[in-house]
Amino acid sequence: MSKNKILIAGNWKMNKTSAEAKALVSEIVAVCGSTTSVDVAVCPPFTALSAAAESLKGTNVLLGAQNVYVKESGAYTGEISASMLKEVGCSCVILGHSERRQYFGESDAFINEKTKVAQAAGLLPIVCVGETLSEREAGKMMEVVTTQTVGALAGVTDAANLVIAYEPVWAIGTGKTATPAMAQEVHAAIRALLVKQFGEAGSKVRILYGGSMNPANASELLDEKDIDGGLIGGAALKSATFLDLVKIACSKERGGHKCCCSCQ
Ligand code: 13P
Question: What pTM was computed for the model?
Fold first, then answer.
């Protein structure tokens, strides 16, 4: 079976001012703004979404946020609703990132609620799962990833508007990448869960890998059967490395041929 269309998404985390975002997005779209071979997304912090949206206008690059709250409006100081994200031009949103689980105490049930709210609002959720080093060393990797995936997707019926990102916590920002075989093992397990829940549609849900993905290791990761793209942290903060990742993905989609836009 052919693989799903690759998605390369940049998670900028708490980096880039509006001015910096504008500059980075301009550099990205100058090269791959018209690409159709792969899907490309950038996810700046909330304050830079508007500036990024300006620079993304008329291009194929998608805008995403890094979180959303579950209520539509009201007395929820510091929170942002799905319609606010839509209004500013977002089409996707990262949910349940390990940093949100770790520093902000997000539970699977909360991430589940956010996933449903995002889908209902027409935002594509990119739901993150992944084990810590101690969980992996204790042999609990599959159990943890299964609990997180099943928990985040409880009651979710829309497989067409869903992306999962497997991000082993020990590989995030550490320079330690899961080997392609290690990543594929978990991606295959997630795939099985998706097919169990959604039937055939589960095989079409993209599963991204995240955790120190860079131009040196992306090619072999993307060759794995169930790795449908990357959620990129550090390497998304510079146009050169991010664009290299897009080019690698593009050439995979085009069977080793030149990219469809001006990136090669
Ligand atoms: P790094 O690519 O910096 O390891 O971050 C991965 C990540 O957390 C993306 O969401």
Answer: 0.96
- For the chain, domains (ranges, CATH) are 7-253 (3.20.20.70)
129-169 per-position pLDDT tens digit: 999 999 999 999 999 999 999 999 999 999 999 999 999 99
Question: Could you tell me the distance, in angstroms and rounded to a whole number, from the CA of residue 10 to the centre of ligand 1?
Answer: 8
Q: What is the atom index within ligand 1 of the atom nearest the CA of 174?
A: 4
CA nearest to 115, candidates 67, 74, 172: 67
Q: Identify the residues whose C-beta falls under 6 Å from ligand 1.
A: 11, 97, 167, 172-173, 210-213, 231-235
The residue whose two tokens read 């690698």 is 248
Q: Which residues are the active-site residues?
A: 97, 167
Q: What is the pLDDT of residues 225-261, one digit of tens each?
A: 999 999 999 999 999 999 999 999 999 998 876 666 6
Report how far residue 225's alpha carbon sits from residue 138's, in angstroms, rounded to the nearest whole number. Answer: 27
From ligand 1's centre to the CA of 71, what distance in Å? 27
Angstrom distance (rounded) from CA 198 to CA 7: 21
